[in-house]
Specification:
By secondary structure, the protein is an alpha/beta fold. The chain has helices at 3-15, 25-32, 55-60, 76-80, 86-90, 92-99, 103-119, 137-144, 170-176, 221-233, 244-254, 279-287, 298-301, 310-324, 352-360, 365-383, and strands at residues 18-23, 63-70, 131-133, 152-159, 179-183, 236-238, 260-265, 291-294, 329-331. Strands 1, 2, 3, 4, 5, 6, 7, 8 and 9 form a 9-stranded parallel beta sheet that branches. The chain binds zinc ion.
């Protein structure tokens, strides 16, 4: 590669505001006691102990805004995979913290844990503050205006409305804490919205997670109230993991009142899984002003023999752009969500590879910047009710 090409991709990547719509460093912090100021090795193969989004990797990958996902582990997991009960004995304190109290309390604790990491994000060597919480649009813009050496802006989101413990009123609490979006459902039915089967099919080989999901079920009455309340507050609605009927109901209720997002998935036309969005849905989300964010995991994008997946990511980006337009595509890596990222883009420090690939596929600088962050920033500024 000639020198000027190398500099060109680096310049574009550096200038772009890089936003990851969905990543889970919080799981590694709260379950594995990882400190995000440390640099952890990340393997190319699936490894639940790898940390792919510590602050140093995020910084190396040029991430400007991390939409940090908090997930209170659902009890269905331990019913579905009995061998996990071993952790009850290996990590009794952690076990009680995660499974011994209501989801609402667990979620609050996980948000606290993440904030503590951000508060202690001073680089031990340089003294630089590596990350800063943004609890409103104004705070986000202040961080983004801090110049080249600015900290990563971290905004909260919650995966799975089981965190509400069945109470619409609890939305206000999370809104006040600065949670900008909630994924309505996750692995199991939660009294609000029904989920699709959320695991790669191969996990069943190990005798775990055998229960199918009922794809005819959608939003419950409580779910409809939750959606209405989220619109009223200005909490962005994420339809990832919802069944097709639940997604349809959300589109109908929301209309064009608030941007809808899909934070980490692929395209049904590329990989026909009910987890992924059909073309009419991509258009629908675009009409709300929202974004569809591409997950970094081959299994959902296009299951294939190869472990490399950059080409599947750009194939999906291509499709989303062709159907929904250049203003409505984004990136939601799902790094550190116990996922298996592609071998050629295994952690946040390697995000520049996607920029290189997009340039090689003749995407313009303007479109690359939209995909990386401009589209998502628009959604945050328009959709998030915490302006000040
Ligand atoms: Zn997910």
């Amino acid at each position: 590669m000639p020198d000027d090409t190398i500099q060109e991709w680096a310049r574009i990547h550096d200038e772009a505001i890089i936003v990851d719509v969905h990543a889970h460093p919080s799981l590694k912090v709260s379950l594995l006691n990882r400190k995000l100021t440390s640099y952890f090795g990340a393997t190319r193969s699936f490894n639940p102990f790898s940390v792919r989004t510590d602050f140093r990797k995020l910084n190396d990958g040029g991430v400007d805004v991390l939409w940090s996902t908090v997930y209170a582990p659902e009890r269905g997991i331990i019913d579905d995979c009995r061998c996990l009960n071993i952790f009850r004995f290996l990590m009794p304190f952690k076990w009680r913290k995660v499974f011994g109290q209501p989801y609402f309390n667990v979620t609050d604790q996980l948000l606290d844990d993440m904030e503590e990491q951000v508060e202690k994000s001073e680089d031990p060597k340089t003294g630089k503050i590596m990350a800063k919480m943004a609890y409103s649009v104004k705070e986000l813009d202040e961080i983004l205006g801090m110049g080249d050496d600015r900290p990563i802006a971290v905004i909260h989101n919650i995966e799975g409305a089981h965190s509400l413990d069945g109470s619409v009123d609890k939305l206000q609490h999370f809104f006040d804490r600065g949670v900008a979006y909630i994924t309505l459902t996750h692995f199991y039915e939660n009294g609000i919205a029904y989920p699709v089967y959320p695991f790669p099919g191969y996990v069943r080989k190990f005798g775990c997670f055998k229960r199918d999901r009922d794809l005819t079920l959608g939003l419950t009455q409580l779910g409809e109230q939750v959606v209405e309340k989220m619109i009223e507050l200005g909490m962005i609605i994420d339809i990832t993991h919802c069944t097709p009927p639940a997604r349809k109901q959300v589109y109908e209720i929301v209309g064009n009142r608030i941007p809808i997002i899909a934070s980490h998935l692929g395209a049904y036309e590329v990989n026909p899984s009910p987890y992924n969005l059909k073309d009419w849905e991509i258009k629908k989300i675009a009409e709300t002003g929202g974004v569809v964010a591409v997950i970094f995991m081959n299994y959902w994008l296009m299951p294939h023999e190869t472990k490399r997946g950059l080409n599947f990511i750009t194939r999906t980006i291509d499709h989303f752009i062709n159907v929904g337009g250049i203003e409505h595509v984004a990136i939601g890596t799902d790094f550190d969500g116990f996922t298996d990222p592609p071998d050629d883009l295994k952690d946040a420090s390697e995000l520049g590879r996607l920029t290189q690939r997009l340039i090689a596929e003749e995407y313009s600088e303007d479109v690359i910047k939209k995909i990386w962050g401009d589209n998502t920033l628009r959604v945050i500024r328009d959709g998030w009710g915490r302006k000040e």
